[in-house]
Design the sequence.
């Protein structure tokens, strides 16, 4: 079953692994910390653009099914990374744009974490 | 003036006394003058009218966020003050990402405060192409002077950020003129010592509308109501009837109705034509729209150029204006990371080398239109650049890269997807002869020209002083009035224009 919020969470997790995390940093903890920011900013998008992005997110979830596997949000991290790599290199602009939009949000959030900690005990993680 | 139907002083907004935050809505209010939008255009207009003794209500869609409440260019600022979470783009090839504010004070609360007067050649073009009256540098001189005084426009009292000097040094070595741009900022000397680990010599604070004109407006008896989005406007029995919806209501909200003799629209370059179009008040609004698209380069230098807290660079190169110009962009680690998105392999460098890195922009000009209709749930801006403008942008990128190597940079990362970093002057030959549209990442923070002023015969939306053609008692007073992208940071131009127009309305000019 396609699941928008689970796909968004899985996408944040994948992009964090792709672009941000270094050895020893726990993807689950950071995904939990950063997903609310991404969800919140996306919720503020204008209605038409927001709907288009939501649709594309569901398409991302469905994409692996068309290739005979499970929905994006149920794939293992390495499999998800292969999907995002394919979407980044896609000939279709909207696929690349979806990845870029989430790259911006995730990377921005990640690099604000020192000045603006996500959690009170963040430095100990 | 009737009492506001909205509750005042919500504690979590920490709004000062006199600023109402609309919670539940309902009811109606009557005033002499209603101003929609509290960015620089609306705040200045509302203040001047209130200080002249008029009864003025100022409406704002966003909430109250004081300058002390959030760190400039932070995540918190983005969450609380950016319209649509900062995710907005004009359609085109490539798409043009843009940023607008949605809070009391509008763009003045989040901008860099870089101040320019409108260049005389731009004013001449607006007089010639749009038939704008009374728009010589001499006509605007008193308004520029007043704006500079009222907002406290000054040069940095100490030494600007080292990254800023790099732009100057590179330009001078190439025989191009770089200028240090003043800002509407207040600077306080800082004591050296343990409480100041970064060794900063000055603390700085933006003289945003929330610190300058909004307090004056309240002092003069004006009423500001935040978190109310104006939706419908119509003329009824000689009065403007304006219907606004609360934007923060926890429960079911009721609209608030306003009645005013005169209505000033200052909802910004996208918002104002949207209101005019949706309410069938002008068929020309939004037919034009102008901007400064920018392409960025992240540069790394052998030495520290961007120590923590060094702020925004204030140097700009304007010698190629109005075709293009260069300047410094926000270069905190999160912004550096955004600048490096097209170079993911090198992204980890930011963790250790951010103090040696800074972002610079090359800016050209582009134009488009804003499509808005009652049946469309959102306005849709479209934009494009002519082949000549695209060539200008390409040349600007080449020249900026040349300048940065001249200034001593060892690596440059342009915002072109899939491009390799440039490591020496010889690599400049690898920059594309014409930027590939589908791979080039552009953004803008300067939106203007969607309701240009001037003569009706030339297609202007308002007359030379902001009154909407064909409408009595309806005015535009924001950046949409500028006939075109001014080639410099626009708020100085906008402030002078709205001051000129407000005084004219009051019969004082
Ligand atoms: C990040 C950034 C940096 C910038 N840096 C500079 C700089 O250094 N120098 C410079 O000169 N310029 C700069 N600018 C541009 C400058 O801020 C704008 O030109 C200026 O704010 C435009 O003022 P305005 O009054 O036209 O509109 P805005 O400032 O956009 O204000 C419009 C207001 O109207 C409100 N509104 C919109 N629709 C409605 C509605 N329907 N009902 C009620 N309220 C509504 C909005 O919420 C907003 O608060 C920058 C802009 C940004 C975004």
Sequence:
């Amino acid at each position: 079953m396609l699941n928008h919020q689970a796909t968004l969470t899985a996408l944040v997790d994948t992009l964090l692994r792709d672009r941000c995390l270094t050895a020893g940093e726990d993807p689950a903890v950071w995904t939990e910390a950063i997903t609310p920011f991404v969800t919140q900013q996306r919720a503020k998008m204008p209605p038409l653009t927001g709907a288009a992005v939501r649709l594309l997110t569901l398409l991302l979830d469905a994409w692996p099914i068309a290739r005979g596997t499970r929905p994006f949000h149920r794939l293992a991290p390495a499999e998800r990374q292969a999907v995002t790599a394919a979407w980044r290199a896609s000939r279709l602009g909207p696929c690349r744009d979806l990845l870029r939009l989430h790259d911006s949000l995730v990377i921005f959030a990640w690099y604000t974490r020192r000045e603006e900690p996500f959690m009170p005990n963040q430095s100990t993680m | 003036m009737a009492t506001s139907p909205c509750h005042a002083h919500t504690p979590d907004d920490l709004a000062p006394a006199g600023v109402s935050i609309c919670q539940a809505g309902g009811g109606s209010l009557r005033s002499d003058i209603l101003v929609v939008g509290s960015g620089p255009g609306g705040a200045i207009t509302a203040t001047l009218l209130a200080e002249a003794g008029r009864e003025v209500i100022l409406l704002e869609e966003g909430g109250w966020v004081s300058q002390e409440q959030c760190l400039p260019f932070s995540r918190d600022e983005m969450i609380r003050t950016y319209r649509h979470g900062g995710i907005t783009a004009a359609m085109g090839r490539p798409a043009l990402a843009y940023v607008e504010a949605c809070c009391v004070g509008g763009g003045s609360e989040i901008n860099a405060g870089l101040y320019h007067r409108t260049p005389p050649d731009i004013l001449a073009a607006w007089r010639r192409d749009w038939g704008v009256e009374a728009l010589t540098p001499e006509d605007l001189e008193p308004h520029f002077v007043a704006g500079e005084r009222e907002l406290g426009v000054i040069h940095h009292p100490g030494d600007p950020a080292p990254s800023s000097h790099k732009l100057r040094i590179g330009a001078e070595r190439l025989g191009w003129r770089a200028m240090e741009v003043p800002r509407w900022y207040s600077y306080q000397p800082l004591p050296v010592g343990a409480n100041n680990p970064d060794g900063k010599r000055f603390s700085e604070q933006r003289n945003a509308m929330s610190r300058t004109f909004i307090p004056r407006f309240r002092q003069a008896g004006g009423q500001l109501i935040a978190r109310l989005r104006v939706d419908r406007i119509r003329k009824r029995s000689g009065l403007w009837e304006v219907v606004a919806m609360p934007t923060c209501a926890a429960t079911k909200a009721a609209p608030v109705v306003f009645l005013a003799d005169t209505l000033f629209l200052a909802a910004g370059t996208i918002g104002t034509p949207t209101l005019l179009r949706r309410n069938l008040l002008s068929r020309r609004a939004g037919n034009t729209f102008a901007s400064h698209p920018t392409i960025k380069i992240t540069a790394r230098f052998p030495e520290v150029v961007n120590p923590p807290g060094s702020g925004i660079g204030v140097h700009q190169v304007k010698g190629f204006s109005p075709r293009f110009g260069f300047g410094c962009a926000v270069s905190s680690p999160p912004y550096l990371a955004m600048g490096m998105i097209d170079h993911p392999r090198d992204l980890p460098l930011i963790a250790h080398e951010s103090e040696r890195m800074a972002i610079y922009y090359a800016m050209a000009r582009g134009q488009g239109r804003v499509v808005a209709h009652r049946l469309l749930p959102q306005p849709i801006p479209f934009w494009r650049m002519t082949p000549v403008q695209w060539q200008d942008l390409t040349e600007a990128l080449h020249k900026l890269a040349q300048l940065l190597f001249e200034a001593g940079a060892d690596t440059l990362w342009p915002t072109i997807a899939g491009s390799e970093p440039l490591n020496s002057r010889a690599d400049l030959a690898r920059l594309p002869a014409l930027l590939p549209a589908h791979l080039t990442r552009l953004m803008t923070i300067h939106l203007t020209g969607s309701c240009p002023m001037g003569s009706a015969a030339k297609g202007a939306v308002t007359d030379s002083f902001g009154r909407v053609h064909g409408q009595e008692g309806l005015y535009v007073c924001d950046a949409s009035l500028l006939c075109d992208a001014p080639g410099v940071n626009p708020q100085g131009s906008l402030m002078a224009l709205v001051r000129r127009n407000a005084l004219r309305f009051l019969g004082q000019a």
Chain A touches chain B at residues 18-20, 22, 37, 40-49, 93, 96-97, 100-101, 103-104, 107-112, 114-116 (CB under 8 Å). The radius of gyration of chain A is 14 Å. Chain A has a mean pLDDT of 94.
